[in-house]
Amino acid sequence: MTRILHISDTHFGTERKAVVEAVLDLARSLAPDLVVLSGDITQRARRGQFAAARRFIERLSLPVLAVPGNHDIPLFNVFARALNPYGNYKRALGPILEPVFENDGVLAIGVNTTRPRRRKDGEISDSQIARVAQRLRQARPGQLRIVVAHHPVRAKVESDLSNLLIGRERALAAWAEAGVDLVLGGHIHLPYVLPLASASGPAGWIVQAGTACSHRVRGSVPNSLGVITRQEQDGAVVCHVERWDYAAGTHAFAPVDRTLITR
């Protein structure tokens, strides 16, 4: 079995300490092969906030694939935003903004959809689309093929249409043709799973995560995260995406929804 823990929008600087500990407890219990952090790791891209994120990652003691979100670029420090927008991010999390993780069960490809010239909107370029598509085509048989970005590519509610990634239709068409299974994202603090339809029919799934540990929850949606499992049953590959919510009464995360992923 391959297991992935999908965490997003931790917004260190606004984190709830009890929820952070619950995330760590769940990670220790599940022992995933990979932890995905799909952006907005900090609230304002400050050194102290990135230091807290670094300590969190070190306590996980697990492989981590992280991509930046719009909150991981300085907002008020205009000089840093213009001259070295990812300086604090790289200092804490390493120099690679678009990492790739691979083992026998999964190929996960990170994409940086942030743009320093934009305050919050995300964008993807033709060269990024082509790079990801090429890498997807190189996946080994049986690998779960995942793309990780911060900004969403499909909306569940109309109010989120303005938050969608610029260039998403070109990206999704190319990635569907290249065999993507899951596109993971965050940004809007609303967890959901939607099928990715293409001209030839179903071609992968969109998986959005909520905010894992920040007090900046959306409406009545609690802190939440995702657990993705891939296993072989009777010669076939079976994949499930589970949503886990934080329950204040137990100070722990518990599963509340499960989606069978097919392709």
Describe the protein's architecture and organization.
One of its GO terms (molecular function) is hydrolase activity. The protein starts with a strand and ends with a strand. The model has no long low-confidence stretch (mean pLDDT 95). Helix 2 runs parallel beside helix 4 (87-93) and helix 5 (126-137) runs parallel beside helix 6. The chain has a single domain (2-261), classed as Purple Acid Phosphatase, chain A, domain 2 (4-Layer Sandwich), CATH 3.60.21.10. By secondary structure, it is an alpha/beta fold. 24% of the residues lie in helices and 30% in strands. The protein has helices spanning 17-30, 47-60, 78-83, 87-93, 126-137, 168-178, and strands at 2-7, 34-38, 64-67, 100-102, 106-110, 144-148, 182-185, 192-198, 201-208, 224-233, 236-247, 252-261.
Secondary-structure topology with pairs:
Elements: E1 2-7, H1 17-30, E2 34-38, H2 47-60, E3 64-67, H3 78-83, H4 87-93, E4 100-102, E5 106-110, H5 126-137, E6 144-148, H6 168-178, E7 182-185, E8 192-198, E9 201-208, E10 224-233, E11 236-247, E12 252-261
Helix pairs in contact: 2-4, 5-6
